[in-house]
Design brief:
mainly alpha
């Protein structure tokens, strides 16, 4: 092919479980659903607020492992967002006009 390489768009999906999840994603979701099931067994659901709080661990972890475009899932998007705001955002110029520490224009 004249030195050109063709990489299929879904090549990373073969490394994921069910084509969507990593082991960490499934473990986190399993812990959230397990905690929700334990809460459902032992906490009486008397009001709407209590019901929402009991279902929250499963819903939150389900939301975190939900796939989003251009990222793996919501958790990855949030990690990238936090890294973007925590890392240094001042870029040092190293272009063609930079010479020995002085900027010649």
């Amino acid at each position: 092919m004249n030195g050109n390489y063709l990489i299929p768009a879904n090549s990373k999906k073969s490394r994921l479980l069910f084509g969507l999840f990593t082991w960490f994603d499934l473990a986190m979701f399993g812990c959230g659903v397990g905690l929700t099931l334990i809460f459902l067994m032992f906490i009486p659901l008397d009001s709407t607020l209590v019901t929402i709080l009991v279902l929250a661990p499963g819903l939150i972890t389900g939301f975190m492992v939900m796939p989003v475009p251009n990222y793996h899932n919501v958790l990855t998007f949030l990690q990238e967002l936090i890294n973007f705001y925590r890392e240094r955002r001042q870029f040092e110029w190293e272009g063609w006009c930079m010479r020995r520490g002085t900027n010649k224009r």
